[in-house]
Amino acid sequence: MLLYTTRFGTLRIENDDIIRFPEGLLGLRDCQTWVLLADAENDTLGWLQSTLRPDIALAVVSPRCFVPTYQLRLPRSELAPLQLGEVTQAQVLAIVGKNDHAITLNLKAPLVINLAARTGRQVIASGDLPIQYELQATTAGLKKTA
Predict the structure, then answer these.
(1) What is the pLDDT of residue 85?
(2) CA dist., res. 142 & res. 146, Å (int)
(3) Right CATH number for 2-134 from 3.90.226.10, 2.30.290.10, 3.30.750.24, 3.40.50.300?
(4) Which residues, at least 6 apart from 11, have a Cβ–Cβ distance to it below 8 Å?
(5) What pLDDT shows up at residue 77?
(6) Helix, strand or coil, per DSSP, at residue 24
(7) So what's the pLDDT on residue 76?
């Protein structure tokens, strides 16, 4: 199928490429189907492109690439809808943002994806994690144009 996007142009995707978020994402409840794309210029960066809204693509990264001590803690019931055989099968991604000072990662509400089942959900982590964790200017991997 062809998917038109405002950021990437027209993409050819297969049904197997689609990741379903049955509950949507915070602030985007109506967007329940997405495609995870690799960034052509930055191998640490990915894009979660909505299949419903061509204008919505979220920059995402593995939080451990930038915060090696990052640990996602949440009740197992939060992961139950993903039907993971093992917790280690989960792909955890942080949404990249930007404030007036720096590029940020949302460590409090990451995305958890079961890649085998092509399902995901946004969860709220237990503990005191920041919604806008500011990356230092010396942190390699992300460009301010992301």
Answers:
(1) 78
(2) 7
(3) 2.30.290.10
(4) 2, 3, 4, 5, 35, 37, 49
(5) 83
(6) coil
(7) 80
